[in-house]
Amino acid sequence: MSLLSVSALLAALVAAPIPAHAEPAHASSTQAEANEESAITDTVLQVGADESSRKLSWMSENSGGGEVRWAKTSELNGSALPDDAESAETTESGLSTDLKRHFNHASMTELEPNTEYSYQVGSEKDGFSDVAQFDTGVAGDDSEFLVFGDPQIGAGGQPDDATGWDRTLNSALETGQDPRFFYSLGDQVNSAGDQGQYEQYLAPEATRTVPQATTIGNHDVASKSYEQHFNRPNVSGDHGGSGAITSGGDYWFIDSGVLFININSNDANTDEHAEFIDEVVAEHGDQARWTVLGFHHSIYSTATHNDDLEVKRLREAIPPVAARNDIDLVVSGHDHIYNRTFLMDAEGKKVASSDAGFEQQKEEGQTMYLTLTSSSGSKFYDYVPGLDWEAKSVHNDVPAFTRVRVSDESLRATTYEVPAEGGTQAASEAIDDVEISRQSDEEPSPDH
After folding, report:
1. Among the listed residues 156, 133, 152, 148, the one whose alpha carbon sits nearest the alpha carbon of residue 74
2. Is residue 57 part of a domain?
3. Which of 71, 121, 138, 171 is 20 to 30 A from residue 440's alpha carbon, by CA?
4. Within a domain: residue 447?
5. Which domain holds residue 187?
């Protein structure tokens, strides 16, 4: 890892998070309205611990006094939030790593299902952001989420990368049917502390209207900027290797009866990750109909990173943990190529009955691994043929995303490419489709 600048170190030390109370309250009628002079930037809507909450992050010019305000859209006064809108103060805030702004984290709680909400963030000093809307959707029925690999804004030239990311995200949202959230698998930016690259990643309107979850990539980890921009739920202080000037932390959440576990694969302590996964599944596994594990460094890619030392260590450590916790699907990025494995066992070997076809019936302890390619087109890696785990690999050097549809009976992952020549609203083209179901006739009965 390269040495960090003195200014980045100073920023990390000065920007120690400032905890604040965050109990919902009624907003004051004297609070500032959103206006053109608002000093709020980089607002991000994110998943909460479950469907009844959403987390937020934003940047402000001034410190202190930050809050989120929200209400049902049906209760708006024209385009403005009502005087009795709910509000919650920031849970943490501090000086950003560029020493120019302040980061803010807050949460919206006690949200009702199948309801459209409106919200804004800000303070008396900075003004408030424009009112934005999101829909909580219907949890627990058939649902879906979107998955993206390595936007890595800045790796291929910021304007083109940002345009590609915006095009792929918009195409995915057009393709999906009211996705509950989208999941970015790391390397959101190319340079960990580059605020301009974060601004480009967060530029699409969907980052404020569709919740997202993120993973820490190797290009994100070397700065506190990742932790400042993303307010993740249930982050462990003991697992995932957050440092004084680096981002980290394993975390989990439940959405629509799916348990999502995310680990920071930049942290080489695989025993800690295993302990985290074991503990989360033991405590929350009975609430889920499916379990999905996400981390950045793909252990079963078909490009050149598959032979890296840190990837080999993960490839030895993850399969037995996935098997004993009956992880159904693992999603990763890092290698800028698309690959789907066969169903794999606890030893990291192909299940004999598994093939490259659409229907894959799994027994307990069997797991499928997906590697997602670049979602922006910033760069791609060369294909490595002949690997034992490859069921389907696509290496067309075209940005792509995966749409995962969830039901009690199956997880269906359909992957689409988004050609650059399609413009800002490019139509997606399916390149792979797989459905995972359970061999047992016994259906899960999650408590959700």
Report:
1. 133
2. yes
3. 138
4. no
5. 143-438
Distances (CA, A) of 421 to 72, 281, 414: 39, 44, 22
Same domain? For 127 and 158 the reply is no
- Encode 349-362: b = buried (16+ Cβ within 10 Å), e = exposed: ebbeebeeeeebbb
First and final CA of the chain: distance in angstroms? 42
Residue 63 vs residues 13, 40, 122: alpha-carbon distances, Å:
16, 12, 11
The string of pLDDT tens digits covering residues 41-67 is 999 999 999 999 999 999 999 999 999
Of 78, 107, 135, the one marking the end of a domain is 135
Determine the Cα angle at 390 with ends 387 and 393, to 5°: 115
Structural domains in the chain (count) = 2
Domain annotation covers residue 3: no
Q: List pLDDT tens digits, range 75-132.
A: 999 999 999 999 999 999 999 999 999 999 999 999 999 999 999 999 999 999 999 9
Structure-block tokens of residue 213: 């979850």
287 shares its domain with 307: yes
> Is there a domain that residue 124 lies in?
yes
What is the C-alpha separation between 78 and 81, in angstroms, rounded? 8
Q: Compute the radius of gyration of the chain from its Cα atoms.
A: 21
Strands (E), 256-409: 258-262, 290-297, 329-333, 338-341, 359-362, 368-371, 390-394, 400-406
Task: Identify each DSSP E strand in 342-395 by its residue range.
Answer: 359-362, 368-371, 390-394
Between 67-76, 344-353, 437-446, the lowest mean confidence (pLDDT) is in 437-446
pTM above 0.85, yes or no: yes
